[in-house]
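Human: I hope this is not a bother. Would you mind checking the protein record under this note? Thank you for your patience.
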Amino acid sequence: MKLNHFSHPHPLVLVEDQEIDLITGIYYCSACREWVEGSYYNCSECGFCLHKSCAELPREINHPFHPSHPLILYEKSQYAGRFSCNSCHKEKGKEFVYHCSSCEFDLDIRCALLPNIITGDFPKRKHFSHQHSLLFIQNHYIEPQDRSCSACKEPISGPVCCCFDCLFFLHQKCFELPLEIKHPSHRKHSLTFLPKPPPHPKKCSCHLCTKAFKGFIYYCSLCDFGIMIKYTFSDKVIKSENHEHPFILVSKPFSFVCNACGTDGKYCFPYVCTECDIAIHKDCISFPWKIKLTRHEHPLSHIYFLEEYEGKNKVCRICWDEINMEYGSYHCLQCDYFVHVNCATQKIWWDKEYFEVKNGSQKSSEALEMQASITCVLKKERRGEEVIATEIKHFSHEHNLILSHEIKDDICCDGCIRAISTEFYYCTECDYSLHKFCAELSRKTRHWSLKTILTLHYYPIFFCYRCSFVCSGFSYIQYDDVTFMCIRCFEVPDNFTNQGHQHHLFYDIKHEECNSCGSKRHGFFSRCKECNFFLCETCNMLPLTTWYKYDEHPLALTYHDDHAVDQCVCEICEEPRDPNHWFYHCEICEYSVHRSCVLGRSPYVKLGLTFTYDLHLHPLTFV
């Protein structure tokens, strides 16, 4: 059965319930960017692929979230870059979108066609804080990590009132809050409900937690006293699963250091445990006793104080600042690994939706099933007590691979695109080789920077989202948004050393410009605690040596040029070089060049590689 689809110039052929061959490079549906399973439509000329259900989507729909105009289905974003779904607020790039050009309203196909949304009847409500009517949704589908309440800034849960045109959300309980209240922390006057903090010359902060205002507040203009919505109806006594005694709210504010997180509570209202003589922030009561971070293999336990570490200095393994061991922190019972409470509970490293740790055992919402890259061992031999596979079938190649110890010049691993200097597997029928280590990589694994499971694939050409190089070979792929991570980036830990800097470097989400290239682009940066040196992931992945076609010697990556500025010139483009930026240099020929001039954008694409491209009819060869 053939289909002419509006999104593609060639006819598509229906394939019934057949698995995709991973070697061909066809991995995901172009409409929803999810992996193809079951029946699908395929273009035999260029590998374009659509789920059968995605190919049959209606071109035009009327949607209750945007009743004023119909939504039209397009094959890509109708803006210069990515689009943001007005329902789930996730940024999308290459997938299909339902779009209203008059209002610039967008829904991804998943949100647009959810059955309980399409068939729902949503009452409209008015709230003084928003100019549009709000839809009341009793049973919403919004994931808690994707959207927060505009009033209390807590994750969306339970019944919700929302305006999808403005991405405005209110819990039902926040929608029903009174316009004026009496509060025990400020008995002199009533507090008025404000959707925005009043203008103030100083940084406005909540009087109960001393944190900067977020969301709606209750406010007394006479006394310049304000509290955030989330603290308005604080319980006087809170029982926590993480502490054996109840915490009691103190009715008088005072300054203290929180025993749970070790940060200051400046003249605010703490909760205290009279049995243990500790005072903590309200937010800290809900922190779990055990958590699991992506950056460490074992669960971490919360402690208020450890006598054996009294007087000893410990460093947080996320921010690398010193931890005051007199106050709370998270630590690993099996390793000498400590983390600040506020660092450990950052959403980027810890998310309750992904990890739950109960009774000392880790329970992941995504089961990690180990899967070998070697699909079949054909021959093996014994070396002492170890059994070695000498002939294998590998998921990435159609022919058998043979183990070899004979290292030859100019052999490149097709997995990591680096030179081979140890034993490797090779194909006797074609030019294909793999390091033994690369051949034995797990098909499914986790990475310290991500919460989702990654799957190993072979791909002729892809863009690594960490180092920003165009690459070929193996990549670990994230299912949820189809992002590619090359093997070289995957191997970099969260703290490491680099030959271009004398001190230890650690990954930091906050960064300035890269000291080795001057880049200020958003991306992955590492930092030196000693001297505030920043290194972007692109520079960290630079090869230590490279070749230029007009130089008979290898060029070495060099980190500083002592020549005068006017003498620092690239021998290829003849443009000036910054002497403080890294470059490639041949000591024998006194030959110095910009990194970009000698490497280009594709230092990790194998020469001679042939691949297909959607926008061209014939195979392309990388030269």
